Amino acid sequence: ETKSTHETHGDEEWVLATLKNPSSNLAFLLQLAVTKGPGGREAGPCYWEENYFSLLPGESRTVKAIVPKAELEGQEPTLRVLGWNVR
After folding, report:
1. Does the predicted TM-score (pTM) go above 0.85?
2. Residue 8 CB partners (closer than 8 Å, separation 6+)
3. With a cut of 50, which residues of the chain have pLDDT below it?
């Protein structure tokens, strides 16, 4: 399960991502990215508090990313999640 919100702070967008592993399996090596709208290219540079982590069954975690607003090219920041055992 994934939920994300974003806030504008001057010329930066702060993306807050909450991920939860509702399954009985390990969600392994989660890779997060902020994209330029749904299905868009990855925005960068993007500075994550934490990335490439795993979630145990039932575990959840919230992390923040900071991306320069200009890098989004007017698009809404969208969260992309990749990893093993991720739906």
Report:
1. yes
2. 14, 69
3. none
